[in-house]
Specification:
Length: 77
């Protein structure tokens, strides 16, 4: 799911393998490193990661960041 508002884009991704707060932090930290990302909220209970950015993100960049954290990007939620 992607929504655009006032020069910001909010995209929700589904990530598999997150089970705890540490997982949320690892995924959030890696995605935060992508150029243009302004906020990340990961929720292990649902596997959803909400990303706010200045422009639409390249899904492969998000996939690489999630992989680096040790999890798998299933795609947009």
């Amino acid at each position: 799911m992607t929504a655009e508002t006032k020069n910001q884009v909010t995209t929700v991704y589904q990530v598999t393998g997150m089970t705890c707060g540490h997982c949320e932090g690892a995924v959030s930290s890696e995605i935060s490193g992508i150029k243009g990302v302004t906020s990340v909220e990961a929720t292990a209970a649902t596997g959803r990661v909400t990303v706010v950015s200045q422009a639409p993100l390249d899904e492969e960049a998000v996939r690489a960041a999630v992989d680096e954290a040790g999890y798998e990007l299933a795609g947009q939620a």
